[in-house]
Design a protein that fits this description.
Residues 249-290 are annotated as: Disordered. Residues 1-17 form the signal peptide. This is CBM1 domain-containing protein. This protein is mostly beta strands. The chain folds into two domains: 19-241, Jelly Rolls; 295-325, no CATH class. It has helices spanning 2-15, 32-35, and strands spanning 19-23, 47-51, 61-64, 78-83, 94-100, 110-118, 131-136, 141-145, 153-158, 161-167, 174-181, 186-193, 199-206, 216-222, 230-241, 296-298, 314-318, 322-325. The strands form three sheets. Strands 1, 3, 4, 6, 11, 12, 13 and 15 form an eight-stranded antiparallel beta sheet that branches. A seven-stranded antiparallel beta sheet has the order 2-5-14-7-8-9-10, with no helix packed on it. The chain binds 2-acetamido-2-deoxy-beta-D-glucopyranose (2 copies). Residues 247-250 line the site of one 2-acetamido-2-deoxy-beta-D-glucopyranose.
Length: 326
């Protein structure tokens, strides 16, 4: 009898598992100029594209089937993202970042933020310089590259504190999912390489989880502006609610399939709900001090802080002239 009940419970969990609430795959984009269709006045498509340099979008974003994780069967192509000395936005830092464009609430319940990244030996990222990757405005979870004590690692940080890392080897796809429980204010990490299913590598820990649904940065910020250019490859970007789809390639966004295979993920209870206070003092290292609420955080000619003290985020009040922390 007990066994039967367990099966039933498992079945109902599967039935509502793995709904893609935002599809960040690049299937809806056929050329770099498609990203330019989005503007503050015309908020179309699945990505906001405003954090970039003054060059043509094709200097920073390019699509090709060779740029995706080959295991991502639902994607026609991936994204090659290039940062160079022109890739500046509201600062001298090199930045190219896509932001979800959606009416979905990306900050409620438990969500899985999926993405895959790769580098090659051509235009390889410089491991002597700090990079922030796939981050939120408040940096409660992000990857870093080029930071001590393992600058050649992709290093997962929670509130500025390193929690896990893996060598960022060339020509290998690194798949990730941030498991964010916005109710419990915790975040955990899932990871695999290539076409292997995701496994949970760090159990959920306390974090200042927050998003206004428009501050997940699918992109790279490099602190120092100098040559040569760097290429970063992106694939398999989507956000899912319910239970995690651990497969790379099936069940992700873009293919129209929103149900997952019955992944038998034994999500262990987060036994280490560490207090969040540890994470509050360490987040300012990278991009300088935070601007306070209602302060300016961007705009033509502005050179001050571009990141807002959480939970405020930088809003385009009168772009391109004035941006304010709200
Ligand atoms: C998220 O956290 C809440 C509150 O601690 C908990 O009840 C819930 O089970 C968690 N959700 C998941 C999917 O782990
Ligand atoms: C994806 O689905 C196909 C058939 O639908 C199956 O053959 C393949 O093994 C699946 N791949 C993964 C990674 O689950």
């Amino acid at each position: 009898m007990l066994f039967k009940w367990t099966l039933l419970a498992a079945y109902s969990a599967i039935a509502q598992a793995g709904t893609v609430i935002w599809d960040g795959t690049f299937n809806n984009f056929n050329s770099p100029s498609d990203f330019d269709k989005w503007s503050w006045a015309n908020q179309v498509g699945t990505y906001q594209w405003y954090i970039h340099g003054s060059g043509a979008t094709s200097n920073y974003l390019n699509l090709d089937s060779s740029y995706k994780n080959p295991a991502q069967t639902n994607e026609k192509h991936g994204l090659k993202m290039t940062i160079d000395t022109t890739a500046t936005w509201n600062s001298q830092m090199e930045r190219a970042e896509l932001i979800p464009q959606t009416t979905a609430n990306l900050g409620t319940g438990t969500l899985f933020y999926h993405f895959s990244i790769k580098r090659s030996n051509t235009n390889a990222p410089d491991s002597s310089l700090e990079h922030q990757i796939a981050f939120f405005e408040s940096h409660f979870t992000e990857l870093k590259y080029g930071v001590s004590p393992n600058p050649t690692n992709l290093q997962w940080h929670v509130g500025g504190v390193s929690k896990w890392g893996t060598p960022f080897t060339a020509d290998t796809w690194f798949n990730f999912a941030y498991e964010i429980n916005f109710s419990a204010q915790t975040v955990g990490l899932w990871h695999s390489t290539g076409g292997n299913p995701l496994t949970k590598v760090v159990q959920n820990i306390g974090a200042s989880t927050y998003t206004n649904s428009a501050d997940f940065h699918v992109g790279v910020l490099r602190i120092v502006n100098r040559n040569p250019p760097e290429d970063w490859y992106w694939s398999g970007v989507y956000i899912e609610s319910g239970s995690i789809n651990t497969a790379i390639g099936n069940g992700s966004g873009g293919g129209g399939s929103t149900t997952t295979r019955p992944a038998t993920t034994t999500t262990a209870p987060s036994s280490t709900s560490t207090p969040t206070s540890t994470s509050t003092t360490t987040t300012t290292t990278a991009s300088g001090p935070y601007q306070t609420q209602w302060g300016q955080c961007g705009g033509t000619g502005y050179t001050g802080p571009t990141e807002c003290a959480p939970p405020a985020t930088c809003k385009a009040v009168s772009p391109p002239y004035y941006y304010q922390c709200q």
